[in-house]
Protein 1
Amino acid sequence: MTAPNPRLSSVLSPGHRALITGASGGIGESFARLLAARGLDLVLVARSEGKLRALATELSAAHGIRAEVLATDLSRPDAPRQLHAACEARGLPVDLLINNAGFGSLGPFDANPFEREHEQVMLNVTALMDLTHLFLPAMLARGTGGIINVASIAGYQPVPYMAVYAATKAFVLSFTEALWGETRERGVRVLALCPGPVETGFFDVVGTRDAAVGIMATPEDVAAAGLRGLEQGRASVIPGWRNRIQSSLPRIFSRTLTVRVAARMMKPRGPTAPKLAPGAAPARR
Ligand SMILES: NC(=O)c1ccc[n+]([C@@H]2O[C@H](COP(=O)([O-])OP(=O)(O)OC[C@H]3O[C@@H](n4cnc5c(N)ncnc54)[C@H](OP(=O)(O)O)[C@@H]3O)[C@@H](O)[C@H]2O)c1
């Protein structure tokens, strides 16, 4: 295991600032609570401005930190640049960027709504890459900083009937591990956090828990595992031993076999299967 990097550890200490996307609930909210308790100032980002404001007020009062709210829809192409510009205009340098906002869709690719699949790539991939590109240079110039990109165990293999979601998470995993290799000796560490199923609002967006397999982790445990992994200077973290085994199966068996097994497991059943609501997504992530 890589030894903690003292300069990086300082990013997680009081007085530094973390920007968290998808902070209005689930894993992002847990990151916000853990970091506020450690004395970090926060920039909270999501679409639900009311939830973000309530969280900012609560955490500022509880921990004496400064918490800013920048509500935006990150699936819009211009949103990352506007978010970065807003941070610059308000004098909010970001020491830790947590690209967490994301969602999944379930169903045959050809039957899923065009707009929903497009939005998924814009949020899970394009916004994450754009924000990394916008905030990383200042971290490198300061010689310190951290980025956590939330991927998924779905990023380790193709997943039929959630083809776009798994592909977006494969991008996040590959992109993040590559950046880890580029930046690890320049004072900045990047980490891919790859959870299995987590008890969050993800399933409300999905519209079903039928496909949930395995033991659900809590968002608190997953966020804590991400912060530990960052402190240890790791390239990626898969919380939970069952998830670590599952993610290694494509390396043990042939890729086509794991895809065929996944297709059987994920195939929507019943007469309503082709009519899944936009954004409906499975729980095997
Ligand atoms: N839960 C799991 O089982 C699981 C497993 C592996 C990976 N993940 C990943 O973990 C990350 C967090 O998900 P979660 O489980 O915490 O789900 P969640 O509770 O649904 O949280 C998703 C967050 O993303 C925000 N968001 C969604 N669309 C957005 C948009 N267009 N612009 C800005 N913010 C947006 C949501 O806020 P608003 O709706 O207010 O915008 C919310 O804060 C995602 O990347 C997901 O893929 C989750």
Protein 2
Amino acid sequence: MVENSNMSRSAVVIDPDYLKHDPGQFHPERPERLKVLLDLPKELDSQSFALLPPRAALRGEIEPCHTSDYIELVRSTSEKNRYALDGDTVTCRDSFGIGLLAAGGFLKLIDSIEASEFQNGFALVRPPGHHALRDRAMGFCLFNTVAIGAHHLKRHYGVERVMIIDWDVHHGNGTQDAFYQDPSVLYLSTHQYPFYPGTGAVEEAGSGKGEGFTVNIPLPAGCGDGEYLRVFEEIVMPIGAKFRPGWVLVSAGFDPHRSDPLGAMNVTEQGFGAMASMLLDLAERYAGGKIAFLLEGGYDLNALKNSVIAVLRRMEGESEPQPPVGIGGEAIQPLVRKVLDFQQKYW
Ligand SMILES: [Zn+2]
């Protein structure tokens, strides 16, 4: 058998077209976010990484997650120079097309991993997606890319258990909603709370058949690497192990970074790297290594770039830095206890 030489490699989806979505001057979700990442594939070791150009998602691929009226509304914004879908979600003529390219880039990454062309990958796309609801744009998001990816895995590949972990500083209300009654998709979120968008309390745990398959970990402002790693070690990893995912999707927002202007957390790039490592291990153990990272928020350009690099290095197999990022944050142990006590009836 001829060995597939790509198989040890990771894919990075990125494209200059992602700069074309312009929400207007002074908007934090600006094209520069992707511009600072554009050269990454060239800077990375070509033995370990390959550039995967995106494709646009087809309407049929986003329809499981959005109503036709809503898709038509977003399409109609391409006839206007500027349109405000909500207070902070503003489009230009290219936004609809770039929203499809963001979703399609993620789907192409998933397809390439399913086809064993790559082991895993990172879709560096914008706009972000995790606030987008079935019929409404929200919080800079047009289409819910990670939800579209999870549906694709279920429908196209018959994956029975998809785990979505969302470490963006904001709660992914759109993703939670998309699978609230669906036991085949486990949604776990760490987020600053109380904070935008207001959802994500411990007690929001899914409903009907989906009860128990939404796990919210609402964190107080000020949490850093120690607190996040404690939460990963004590909640995310054990529940993930019990769920035994066939696939892992990561809504990787870098706005919990200590330099981020929107969030009030203290995570460092090494902290994101350590979280990525744990998830890579989980995917290796249960999902044959199948894991796809998706860029959500992250608004300090340096912090964003360095954090993405830290995650990519871990995907490449880089080991723990010395000294390793330690588990700390004893102060949030009562919250960890509260989440575990609440989740105990499910896990
Ligand atoms: Zn965010």
Protein 3
Amino acid sequence: MERRKFIKNCSFAAVGIPMIGTILQSCGSIYYATTSQSKTGLTLSKSEFWELKKDKKIERKFVMIQSNKFGFPICLYKIKDDQYVASLLKCTHRGCELNVGGGIYSCPCHGSEFTTQGKLLEGPADEDLQTFITKSDNENIYIKIS
Ligand code: FES
């Protein structure tokens, strides 16, 4: 192999390997909860917010929910004790799927940003996200989606 080619390949590897770790780490924090569906909405156990890391019980800030009805995921964010906000991760500008991270939802298409309660922070979108009413009891969280 030519010296120049070898150095170029090593440079890509040196840059790429740490990036793969970062990508995998960020993917690891996205968790899709198991839900059950009824006529009026979705139900999930509060235990979906808990994970075991090195024998320690850690609470997630949010869980993702697959929604066949809307074609976009719903993010259920825990705002306070027993207070949750469920937001459809569809940008109100032109409908791109939003990213979750850094305590906001951000749009990869044109840069709109929303709070985890679905409120618009930054355009070009000019509307809040679609959110759903949530209720909870001692065991479960209920999301009304009809
Ligand atoms: S589609 Fe999200 S900012 Fe344009």
